């Protein structure tokens, strides 16, 4: 393991430090420079983001963060303490990748055990663009339809303790890729996917070749094919950081347009304060060119749901190695349609992690179900996951890969 490179984390550290300077207390909170009494502690909240799929901007307007000791408290119950942003702040989530933080503020809290957070967004009204997207390749800002929950707050169940005289820092990880879904007729909807993650600057870092940077590179840390964290490299240097990872082993997947994927298996994260390097600026990760194909179809939810969102993932496995997700996408809310485009036909490159760099990648001839072939999986909250074990795009795109999900 090597220590974290400061160049990728300076912005994050600065944002975290400044979180104590930029808050407006609300509700039962406090503001100003007066230190809280010794019977009180302090909560500071920041926001970060995973990369978005197919957008050049994803904007949300944050109004406040609310906290309560009761996990079942409604938005009108007593006991809430608010961190209020005045005025509400419009944030482009895509500026918050690679470990960057946006400080939302802080407030004093009575020492004790807390079990609920809510992130409150301003709703779009009329033709307003409080919450919006810019589709990749476009310059037009389009309204992002928001659910009614944004007015009462996106509910986040996360237990934490506040000790007297101590400060607790929490980071809200807004997953823009999963949170933005189509809803027919060229419109987009916000289905917020937000989790609370550690503030520590540990994780996995490295470099991709600068020759790839115009090709929509995505780097993700996965466990058993589930994406735990994802980011995009620095647009100038190619440096990336998958930060604030829980301790454990991860498979790192690098993808880019018209390129075969690269996978580094079993990368150990054993420290809360250090970053594991998997490549260097002198020997960055490169991806060989390949033909690509697509898989499309529909996902039907039976019974239908007005709240559940279906996601479809294309996965591959390695003999005596991991299963990883190469691409995923949310199905259209109105029609259930999806298209996973740009899937590599060429076999992924694979290397088992070693502390000795550079890693030696080799074409994974033993990938399952095979080069140009994918396991396709559809899932939705409250429904049983379904999968098709072999979808072959090596000779022909597949456009009728359909799923019917049931509870």
Question: What are the salient characteristics of this protein?
Answer:
disordered N terminus, Immunoglobulin-like, mainly beta, 9-stranded mixed sheet, 407 residues, 6-stranded mixed sheet, 3 helices, 2 domains
Write the layout of secondary structure elements.
Layout: H1 6-18, E1 25-27, E2 40-50, E3 55-68, E4 81-92, E5 102-110, E6 112-121, E7 132-135, E8 141-145, H2 149-152, E9 154-162, E10 167-175, H3 176-179, E11 180-182, E12 188-190, E13 194-197, E14 203-207, E15 218-223, E16 226-231, E17 239-243, E18 248-255, E19 262-269, E20 275-277, E21 292-301, E22 310-318, E23 323-330, E24 337-344, E25 349-352, E26 362-363, E27 367-368, E28 373-380, E29 386-392, E30 403-405
Parallel strand pairs: 2-10, 8-12, 14-20, 19-25, 21-30
Antiparallel strand pairs: 1-4, 2-5, 3-4, 3-6, 3-7, 6-9, 7-8, 10-13, 11-12, 14-17, 15-16, 15-18, 18-19, 21-24, 22-23, 22-27, 22-28, 25-26, 28-29
